[in-house]
């Protein structure tokens, strides 16, 4: 059994980020053609595109502000022209900001999280779901976070945005499931990425002591779950919030 995404086209928003680039490589290694989205990292996007070509798939880069419906629609049209209709959407991009307490966090930070978590999800659905409905096949995979279940101090803006995203995805799963489209979320824990490897910060005893598996997960482990949910192996899974956190958070029944 293997994950086969041959002849599928996937869009990964925030593809040049720490997790995004590994998802991009992984999906390409499964045979998917890749639309590499970026907002400001054009050079990184071009480098990633050139790297992806080694998998023998098609890849192209596309810039858009995910908080703008007009720019997402324009990106969709460009992808259609260069790669064809998108089969799989991975919503990974999110605005970055400094975390602090609710009393200190600026209103603009809450707005940025709402725009890049909730509204990005809405805009991507509006832009890409109609073609999926027409073809009776599609995948939406949103990148959520274990923080949505933790609600720790200083997480409020991030949690508010990701919890709002969770609501959109659960409703979307019910609205478009009849068309053969699945809608799921992957919720990483505090994940080891290239930044950690470069800075030798892979280990955090204080964090790992609370994780049942006693370690941090890796970016590749996140990408593996994304690839699974994007594939036909997960054809009867929809509306799921899947923590990839070593048991650090556990949804209850």
Features:
Rossmann fold; globular; 253 residues; alpha/beta; single chain
Strand content: 5-15%
Please state the structural category.
Answer: alpha/beta
| Rg computed from alpha carbons, rounded to a whole number of angstroms | 17 Å
The strand count comes to: 7
H/E element order = EHEHEHEHEHHEHHHE
Task: Give average pLDDT, whole number.
Answer: 97
Architecture per CATH nomenclature, i.e. the level-2 architecture: 3-Layer(aba) Sandwich
Strands of the biggest beta sheet: in what spatial order?
3-2-1-4-5-6-7
The CATH superfamily is identified as: NAD(P)-binding Rossmann-like Domain
Largest sheet: 7 strands, parallel
Q: Number of DSSP helices? A: 9
Shape designation:
globular
Q: How would you name the oligomeric state of the polypeptide chains in this document?
A: single chain
How many domain regions? 1
